[in-house]
Amino acid sequence: MKIKNYLIISLSAILCISVLFTCFFKFDSLPSNNINVEHIESLLNRKQEELIKTTGDICNFLNDTVKIEEFFFGKKVDDFTKSGTGFLLYENNELKYWTTNDIPVPTSSTFHFFDKNILNLNNGWYLAYPVQYENYLIVGLFQIKKEYSYENDNLSEYFWHEFNLSSNVQISTDFEQSSTEICINNDENCIYLLYGYDYEFSVSKRFILKHFLLVFNFLLLLVVILLIFIKLFKDCAKSKWLLFLLLI
C-alpha cells in the first residue's frame, strides 16, 4: 500500500511540473531573429555612401601612381576586417590593384560581372558600387554576410556585426513568401531576408513539443486518477471487511 502511495505522489509531482512547464514555456515565441528593417536599410545606405565617396576619391588620383599605391598598399590594407569594405581597381578590364584578398572576385571585369549592386560571391553577399572612368573600373564592396556556397564544419557564417542578425537569416534577391524586403537607396536595389531552414526547424520542434506535452499530461492525469480510484476501492473494500468482522 505504501508503495502505491509513493507512486501516486511521484506521478502527481511529475504531472504538476509538466503542467507548469507547459503553461509557462512560450512555445509560440520566436528565436531572437527580429529583423529591424529601418536599422538595416539605414546601415546599408550609409555603407553605400562610404563606397561612393571612396570610389570617387580613387577617381580623383587615378593618374597619380604614388597616391594609388599608397591607397591600395598602405592605409586601406586589412581595412576589410575593420569596416567590411574592400576596393578594386581594374585597368583595361584586368585587375590591377585590390585592398584585400578576402573577396573572391574575377581577375577580369568583362562578362558584366559588376552590373548588379548585390553580389553573391563564394564567401558571402556583398553590396557593390562600380564606377567606370575611361579605361578604368573602380569597385567598392561591402560584405553584408559571410556565407559559403559549400558546407564545412570549420567555416562560420555570420552577418556584419552592426546588423544584429542571426546567421540563420537567409538573403535572396528574389521575393519569397514570409520574406522581409530591404531596400537600398530609395528602392533602387532590394534584397529579401527570410528565416532559414534551421529557424523553421526550431519552430517545428516547438510545435511538436507543445502537443507532445499536452498528450503526455492528459495520459499521466488519467493514470494518476486511475491509481487513486484503485486505492480508494481497495481501502473501501478492506473497510467493509473490517466492519463485517466487528459486527460478528
The arrangement of helices and strands along the chain is: HHHHEEEEEEEEEH
Q: Proportion of β residues?
A: 15-25%
Return the structural class.
alpha+beta
Low-confidence spans: pLDDT under 50, at least 5 residues?
241-248
Q: What's the total number of strands?
A: 9
Q: Can you characterise this structure?
A:
This protein is of the alpha+beta class and 248 residues long. The protein has a domain at 37-166. 46% of the residues lie in helices and 22% in strands. The chain has helices spanning 2-24, 37-60, 65-75, 79-83, 197-247, and strands spanning 85-91, 94-98, 118-121, 124-133, 136-146, 158-159, 169-172, 180-184, 189-195. Helix 1 packs antiparallel against helix 5. The longest helix is centred in the C-terminal third of the chain and has 51 residues, at 197-247. It is rod-shaped, with a radius of gyration of 32 Å. The protein starts with a helix and ends with a helix. Residues 241-248 have low confidence and may be disordered.
Topology summary:
Blueprint (H helix, E strand, L loop, with lengths): L1 H23 L12 H24 L4 H11 L3 H5 L1 E7 L2 E5 L19 E4 L2 E10 L2 E11 L11 E2 L9 E4 L7 E5 L4 E7 L1 H51 L1
Antiparallel strand pairs: 1-2, 1-5, 3-4, 4-5, 5-6, 7-9, 8-9
Descriptive terms for the model:
248 residues, 6-stranded antiparallel β-sheet, 3-stranded antiparallel β-sheet, 5 helices, 22% strand
Provide a concise account of the structure shown.
The protein has helices at residues 2-24, 37-60, 65-75, 79-83, 197-247; strands at 85-91, 94-98, 118-121, 124-133, 136-146, 158-159, 169-172, 180-184, 189-195.
